[in-house]
Records
---
Amino acid sequence: MMKQYIILGVLVFLFGSCDSFLKEYSQDLAYAETITDLEEVLIGNGYLDRGTSFKWLHTMDDDLEESVVNSNYTDYENFFIWASYPCTRNNTVYKDETWVTLYKNISAINVVLSKLKDISDFPEEVERLRGECHFLRGFYYYFLVNTYAKPYVKESASTDLGVPLETTEFFEDIYFKRNTVEETYSLITSDLEASARLLKGKAHQSVFQANYHAVQAFLSRVYLYLGEYEAALQAADSVLQGDYVLLDYNEFAQTVASPADMYGIHDIVPVDVINQASVETIFTQGAGTFAGNISAFGIASGSELARVNRYKASEDLVQMYSKEQDRGTDLRSTFFMYVNQTDPTSKRYIQKQTTSSLTTASSEFLLRLPEVLLNKAEALAMLGRDVEAMAVLEELRVKRIVAAEYKELDARSGKKLIELIRDERRRELCGEGHRWFDLRRYAVHPKYPSTKEIVHDHYFYDNSIRQVTYVGSYRLNMYESEPAYVIPIPQHVIEFNKGNMVDNETRPDREAFIRF
């Protein structure tokens, strides 16, 4: 009979050794005897810390370009150029914190779920915590499978390798294997559906804790990935019964800073379009990559932006806002981006939040009303309900376009309608962790596949002479011939599992070419 290993064994697998976290974690569980104790454990170890974000996710797609101003930009350099093993800095491999963090939290969730079975008091509160646990576990496995596995394709999902799954606090084997993509999504949907049942009718604790509408919002996204459009539509409609309201950008004032900065520029003060207290926000956890003073992407207040940014909005993204409207009439280009007025090329930087406090909204684990509307529009379009899909898009756009210039778009159907919806997702959801995952699922879409080459220009900053030099450009090929749409399984996980954990297809050593 095989031995069973309690959850701490898994944490050894994840971290490689029992670090200080294990001591704190085991102490937390030792005193967790009441519903209040377990809620504290879940908030502290199951939900993402409000300082945690996965900034690398934003550097691989076509929404950002380098804006090198110092030598620290190399933090995400190898994600930006789609290197063979991106978790490398200065030729040294570092631990993949995304894998470690998410599996650590899944482990905590599994233990909380187990301990909740022993509590007979306060059944409503027990159900609520169970619902939150299932929501979080589904969310984390969604993020893992879309990072470390191929996108969902119905015909091959039963054989495509997903990620290792565990749903109990005990493990029958210390070495782990990957489940299939189909098995992974089966767990995600079953977790979310269970969460919806458990949280329905329960009081909402906080925007930082899941409620029924958060589950339905996320289900509307997951069902789109699976091509289950009726289910996506029903989930979206459930959210629209909640008390969430679209912001009207026509009501935002453009405030000009005074006095002028050191260059004599009176900057336009950025506006919070994403906020934990917003009437559009359904759920958020973790930190905001494009929020004030987050050093990795250099967002700060006022003219400080000019000195610390490392990644700017790509010209491709900037042009999207004038694709359907004349330049300047789509207010999102004004309120989503800071314009560096001291730069002759007027560089634009994504900035959707003005604060970097621990209560800011997330950039990778955020659910808000506009996404739900876009999910609904896509589901309607795929069901052939084109007029209804167009109406949903207009419901969003009327709040985003200068009122005096607003006019309804010409009616579209089929592929052209889907392309419009995809463009609207890019315009509305930039900087919120969607674009890379969307590009993957578009590439394998069963009816309207769409793939593109992406080129990233790469620069080097010489700190000794404070000079930026163009190194060359790197190309991400179209999906069919490109293994770099999938991140490698972490090296420390491959090594620990001694051949049991199969890695993804080897990514090529990409060579730079000179573009200009």
---
Amino acid sequence: MSNEVNYMQQRITINFNTDSKTTDKTTILEYCRSHGIAGIETPCGGKGTCGKCKVTVTKPYYKDVLACQTKICDGMEIIVGRKESTGTKEDSMVVLTNGENVSEKFNEHVNRNVEDTLAACDIGTTTVVCYLIDKETGQIISTRSGANPQRSFGADVLSRIDAAARADDNDKANGGLQMMQTQIVSLLNGWISEMLMECGRTKVSRFSVAGNTVMCHLLMGISPEKLGKAPFMPDEYFGRVFNPLDIGLENCQAMIIFPAVSGFVGGDITAGMMETVNRNELTLYLDIGTNGEMALGKGDRYVCCATAAGPAFEGAQIELGMPASKGAVDKVWLEGRRIKYSVIGNDRPVGLCGSGLIDALAVLLKAGIIDENGTILSGQELPILFRSYVFEVEAEETAQSTEPFLAVHIAPGVYITQEDIRKLQLAKGAIAAGIEVLFKEYGCTPCNIDVLTFAGGFGNYIDKASAAAIGLFPQELLDKAKEVGNAAGNGAVSAALSQEAWERALEISKDMRYIELASYPHFDEMYVEHMNF
């Protein structure tokens, strides 16, 4: 199951006389962050390099500007977001929520002595999902989902680590760490309050949280700054009970946060593995989203790693990349001599989301439009049938370069550039190299694998054949691949209901050995090798 999160158009008027937090040195992005205004995409974290934080200033001038680079002035009028019916990128985001009740394997071990209502939450870098649970039946009775409001500080965890480190000593409340904590706590407070009221309940006795290590640090107001530099050791590994009131979380009596294994393999992975991995089957577990985390093993022995894949597969830092929302090209395929596509919401195509990008790469490779190095071919090198798809982009049309370069038409007004392909190659190369390292460290080969598990929204929607065709994972595993949806969210639900589930997650975190790829022998060579097709 998935929900669509709408970004409605908002009109803002700046008034210095009534707003003490605002000065003429404040950018539009900073203003929106501090006032809880959503709908501005900043994959680069506000560095002015991605060009995706455009808003419309209607007064004192009428033009589109970059929110991260434009200072406000008294009386300025700004439009943030777009009207819902326009089919533009900001309209809505498809969020994978999944599941209706606790996993069957834990049903017999539900905590019957737990009082009142339970709740569970999966805090992702891109999206957040929260569930209200009836403890007697194990049924999810209400769900809320949406974009993580911290996205205004950057699309990936490294951008948010950097933002958290930039605290304002003279104004702690508006420092990056404090602002991001306030954003997520406010979101959860609002959702929990709404769901309790909707279901006629008054409080949550046990609140279970799954999230990557950085997201959990931000939730608890703990600086993740150490995760931005070697040896990447977190201040907190979680895996215990916390008092929700310590962070201002209301209507909750106790909160458990899933254990992290390392700075970049967090509680979302232990939650997902607890929920989906069979002890007796050798499983390769992949969670490829804004971050790329993976684990391999069975029984009481696992190895894991995290790849510096970046957010390319979620559409960030791609010229016409976008989240999985209305207007996104989500599937691409060859039909004779034509490149065909589908669009979320059957709307006008405006960009490519992650699943569409994977398909597009596979199609370009199959059609002979790109070679094994990922280079877009031109002239006589191109197959005659597909020459009309390749064109030259003028410099002013793109934020990527000052020189003309080649691109490939995918849909009307939607194309993929040479630079986009390079970024996707970097991402897929890192993931494929990470998988190779896990095989080496566990002492197995692809033919030994029983199950390849894809977790998360990205893994749920990508075409596995396309992913194998571009070398994201070994071709031999294609028939063993399955998607498990929002495994982290489902695991959080199980742990809210079942002490056995929680203890199993603790066991998994202790049984996992983390491999730091940055210092792994010859990883760079493996990385480069896997970039090619």
